[in-house]
Amino acid sequence: MGIIVQKFGGSSVADTEKLYNVCKHIIKEYNRSQSVVVVVSAQGKTTDKLISEEKEITENPDLREHDCLVSVGEQITISKLAMCLKEKGYNAVSYTGWQLPIITDSVHCGARIKYIETEKIKKQLEAGNIVIVAGFQGINEIGDITTLGRGGSDTTAVALAASLKADRCDIYTDVDGVYSSDPRIIENVKKLDLVTYDEMLELASLGAKVLHNRCVEIGKNYEVPINVKSTFIDESEGTRVINNKDLESLYITGVAKDDNISRLTIIGLENKIGRTYKVFKLLSENKINVDTIVQSAGEHAVKDISFTVKTNETKKALKIINENLIELGAKEVICCDKLSKISIVGVGIVNNPGVAAKVFEALYENNINMHMISTSEIKISVLVNKKEANLALKAIHDKFY
Amino acid sequence: MGIIVQKFGGSSVADTEKLYNVCKHIIKEYNRSQSVVVVVSAQGKTTDKLISEEKEITENPDLREHDCLVSVGEQITISKLAMCLKEKGYNAVSYTGWQLPIITDSVHCGARIKYIETEKIKKQLEAGNIVIVAGFQGINEIGDITTLGRGGSDTTAVALAASLKADRCDIYTDVDGVYSSDPRIIENVKKLDLVTYDEMLELASLGAKVLHNRCVEIGKNYEVPINVKSTFIDESEGTRVINNKDLESLYITGVAKDDNISRLTIIGLENKIGRTYKVFKLLSENKINVDTIVQSAGEHAVKDISFTVKTNETKKALKIINENLIELGAKEVICCDKLSKISIVGVGIVNNPGVAAKVFEALYENNINMHMISTSEIKISVLVNKKEANLALKAIHDKFY
After folding, report:
1. Could you report the predicted ipTM of this complex, rounded to two decimals?
2. A213 and A295 both lie in a single domain
3. A171 in reach of chain B (CB within 8 A)
4. Which residue, B193, B227, B245, sits at the end of a domain?
5. For a tag on chain A, would you pick the N or C end, based on fewer CB atoms within 10 A?
6. pTM, full prediction
7. Rounded CA separation B241/B231 (Å)
8. Which among A65, A69, A80 has the least Cβ separation from residue B57?
9. Does residue A250 lie within any of the structural domains?
């Protein structure tokens, strides 16, 4: 029987009662497979509380010390959960990131896992014990504590599953799977039974907050079957994230929305080699994340180039480009904020040329203007006015479901 | 210039304001000596809170997991304090017990330090940085977190000072030194400028809660000068704990009281070799700590033997002895609880035969009965009724000061 990795997030372990609820899932799996490794996050608001205490001290914390501080959250959870399991009569043993160790690079607050030493885990599993591992944290090569950044515990879980060659990684959360769109906006959302890693990657980057991109990437690279299921609904079937779907599966997976978008357009850029490169080098040097880029066909002496940035980086991006207009060889930059990006995702898109037309039809029928369009093999995104975003989401969703 | 170790307890670092107050002491010493290592406890009630959360889970926690849980308290303090110092413009770097590492034995909740690796600290000091170390915690040889038990942070500080061959270990606390008696009971207590390690050991074991025995032991063994001073009173002179006093010093250091005492007397014990040994072996096997032992001269066929135990262990001790009366060859065991032990401590006692007489005189004048007397080279202890204990303390203190 293979190893099963289970991951429980902060809301699933928020208090003693919930810790004991989590024990039920663990014990059930243990009684079935005998080899269970559990990854947990910090309890409820623990990390938020530590960060607010940190803000009392400084607005600009040293990142090494910050990681030392916030990593205690998971350390609290692992020891408590091990105690709960022992109280229930099951042998459990906890490990922090440094105890295994989980070796990462040195990028504090956003470290990447380089290697997980699994010897201790394997020994404990062989002895019949349940192993509890702190998510979100690791240790770099000089022995400093690191943290993995947002969604870090998911990443720990899938990376552990990959390192242990586990049969499966079950991500327990407060929703019971991945949906075709946001259930808070769309009434008739459909829970997806299956979704591919690629679709999940697109959905995650589009604001479906179920799984973090990095964990899906690892899942994809090491072909770890991931199950997303509910901590609170017993026998929840959840969503399976896998490599390839059967032929019969839906060609559209979901429709997602991101409200945090501004579009910048640089007008009258000289149509010379290297101009586009210069623009994005400048933005990158200033640590501004650019999302979609659309360039008009460059047949003329000048061209326009549009791209999107996150709303909170708009001002900074505008300022930088305006300060460098002459050097960039551009005429002006204009900005269109209060936009939302609606994206439709599915592996079937590339083989179904009618999808784009259907999207545009749905928007046309609802009199919604598109500010930008971009497409990939498995995704079509359109920018619309933020105030029309929910209507657009619903219109597109209804068109396909 | 040599290294200075400073230690700040939980009440000295309880919140952000207090952390910044502690920075003042650190910066002042850093500006003077350039080589400061700081040991801190968990903030205020942090450890108590963790333990009460633990009690929600189980009354009988796994001790390995318990140590993993409670050790987060100091980890929080070290990172916060390092941030505070950075905010003040001083470079500081924090280390947990496992990061140095501080190697201990495997006795969870009461581990003893075997070895402290000081390489990282020395490197940081050479680079001009202030080093912050988590008190109370260490790591055993298989990589599990251990804690040192009560007074653990003091022990960490003095052990570090010994390992670093520091010039001095300053223990900052909420009182401004060691007193000749309990200031809450005696009005005219005298703050001691100097006290020897041996006197401090006796005082600590007698309920003067300023320094824990284990840290004084290490100080004595490695001749680390220890200063006890106030975190909250600037320029507090404090008390110096040293190896030998000048000849002129007071021959009495202090008078202490312990209210947590019961006396058991085993009557009619056969006066044969090995009987006494059997009694205390039995108690030791049952993990009962015996304090003072007094045995009447054994000229007869039977003898009586009295000893004291802590109040909360009285019932257990009585039960065990009663169950084994025949085997022990004794007639009966009687118990006298609600007792207090008053002790007078000073290196001068051995050379001043009048001290004992003065103690007895003070009690006689106040009509206080003594239930047991025991003496050592630097201590005279008497048991009195608990309700007369404060009066006895005052009477003896007044006799000498």
Report:
1. 0.76
2. no
3. no
4. B245
5. N
6. 0.78
7. 17
8. A80
9. no
